[in-house]
């Protein structure tokens, strides 16, 4: 595409005093928006439960799960992953459903990335 246009300009016979100006158009690749999945702190959900959630639904190691859980515990919130809308929505639903079934008030939400 780009090369075709360049070739056409290069092939154009130059008459005296004429310059060929090559204009570049940036190819705009459309990427789907990404969503951060956030885990929120609360005073009641056991730490081990949160660690289990992180291992089970976000596929992180035990050590990383403990790290993320402690960040949420200390700071109030942490990003646990960045996904497409559909995947993020599924993760949030899985976590919320699992927390509810185990009668823990754990909250998980999603937020569009800037
Ligand atoms: N703050 C909770 C406690 O002290 C632990 C906790 C961590 C809860 C992370 C939720 O997302 C959370 N038992």
UniProtKB/TrEMBL annotation:
Which Gene3D superfamilies does the record associate with it? 3.30.1390.10
The protein's GO terms of the molecular function aspect are:
peptidase activity
Q: Which Pfam families match?
A: ClpS
Which residues are in the Adaptor protein ClpS core domain? 31-109
One biological process term from GO is: proteolysis
The record's section on SUPFAM superfamilies has: ClpS-like
- At the top level of its lineage, which domain of life is listed? Bacteria
Q: Which UniProt keywords apply?
A: Hydrolase, Protease
Keyword Protease on this protein?
yes
Similarity comment: family membership = Belongs to the ClpS family.
Task: Summarize the protein's role.
Answer: Involved in the modulation of the specificity of the ClpAP-mediated ATP-dependent protein degradation.
Quaternary arrangement and interactors, per the entry?
Binds to the N-terminal domain of the chaperone ClpA.
Name of protein: ATP-dependent Clp protease adapter protein ClpS
Q: In the UniProt record, what gene is named as encoding this protein?
A: clpS
